[in-house]
Specification:
alpha/beta, Aspartate Aminotransferase, domain 1, seven-stranded mixed beta sheet, six-stranded mixed beta sheet, 13 strands, 45% helix, globular
Amino acid sequence: MSKTNLNALFLGPKSENKRFFSEMLRFLMEDHISWRENFHPEDPPLITPEEHDHASFQDTLQKTREVLVDLAGRLEMSSNPWFSPRYLGHMNSDTIMAANLGYMLALLYNPNNCAYEGSPATTELEVEAGLQLARMLGYDPDKAWGHITSGGTIANYEAIWVARNLKSIPLAVKKVSPDLVSSMSDWELLNQSPGWILDLMDRVKAEGCFEEVRDHSIRGRGMSEFQMGKILVPQSKHYSWNKAADILGIGLQNLQFVPVKSDFRMDIKALAHAIDQNAAQRIPILAVIGVVGSTEEGAVDNIHEIAALRDTCTAKGISFYFHIDAAYGGYARTVFLDDQHRFLDRNEVIKKFQRPDLNWPCIDLYRAFKAIPQADSVTIDPHKLGYIPYSAGGFVLKDKRVLDLISYFAAYVSGQKDEMPGLLGSYIMEGSKPGAAAAAVWTAHELLALHQDGYGEIIRCGIEGTANFFQALRDEPPITIKNDRFMVEPLIRPDLNMVDFAFNRIGNVDLNEMNRLNQAIYNESSFRGGPLYANEWIASKTSLNRREYGEAPLPFIEKFGVPTSQWEHVGEVFVLRSTVMTPYLMKPSVFEEYHHRFMQTMRKRLSKAVTQF
């Protein structure tokens, strides 16, 4: 097979591939129309030519036109131009043509992937896509299981749902079949590894008392009978973890935030200290969450070190569920895989970049991605670095045996478990769900393999474009506006393809003034600055505060000459955020042109901000 040509994947910033897209869209729509026409051709048409001629019929069609034209206008005026290299904001970019077309085609069939009988075609596509993700993440596809969610938030909920139910099983076994765990204390039972608990479940099933055990677990008895302990998450966590602790009855006070270092990766020494502190108080650890691509900084935790720490803790009699929130960065693992899904040597990964001098990945990043299969489950979002339209999150389990702890079988949709193994609705949090999303993911995966020569090509381009942007910001000389000079600095060297940065007036030591300046720039670089379609450059923003991040942002503000006392007094720094998902800024000539436009725009916005202040 020839090498993937990225220019043929997207509709394009200027609709360069409009002919192919239009032809395929027309073909697919006609194909669906023929499908309807040929379903029992002996059936007569129910809408007659005479009906077409009625005034009310024509009026209804005209009203339909008017509504759709109105919708088109609203979308054109107020939507983000994800497709353009001028958009460097949230984790969005142009989406793959094949995924868009697959979604639109499946939409016409309106499959509901809750139950197989409502979606025979797309349920199978979802199961296939889930196993494709499992294999890409390094799991054994014969043992793993995955599916498409509405997004990373639901996937994170499912991770804690699984971890919570699993943690309570040993105590439930002690009540129902005490001989199986007779020599173990409650503390020991609360500190068994997920694999040990799943093996214990197999023994329970062999004894024929699994249903009774499940009824005595947290699923049947509720939180009041169990102390599940703490969920440890890095300070860089997504806000969905707070919601998960609330919704699943864990309680926000049992969500413990582990400090991050100045590179915004979890501090592993602080994690070890938190585990030891809790153990000393006989508080178990329900789960530890590692992040592969934080939503604010794009940072990747040292997953290998978390996995090694769990091994050390398990040997000391303290174990826990390990989940990775790779909603943003999960697809980047394709950069590390050959066409047999073998994890490549680091030097082989580096050589694939057009600029090997980038030295990407660094050794910790390489080890982190290699260690992903050691986690019990992973959240991964196709609608981020999978370049697939919303809504398409993903949740992948290392060991599908755990599904028996969360499954429900409603007779009105399924009949018997063995009858319809594709009954997704009984294994997941969502009920009715669009099969079109699964079709889009499957279509993209079939077109672009989940390894270095498929998806890896797109993601490498984004990483190289990010490196260009990061270095250009570092090299940017001071900007003179009236009698003042302004500097720009990036927050950290990017792990993936996100760059946070800020401007400050040289000589200014007031953090509030610096924050006001960057807030003013953001206001002009977002929907606040007027019609998005007319905006010259669009970015997003975030705020790093002391309450959530501790002292991690301090080295950043010190780059600007802002003293520690200001950080202690203000406790927050406002930064601009650019996610470089577009593959086009990898080319030096294209990047230079667009970065030149970017800096021209920034000078205008700095000038306007100075005038305002």
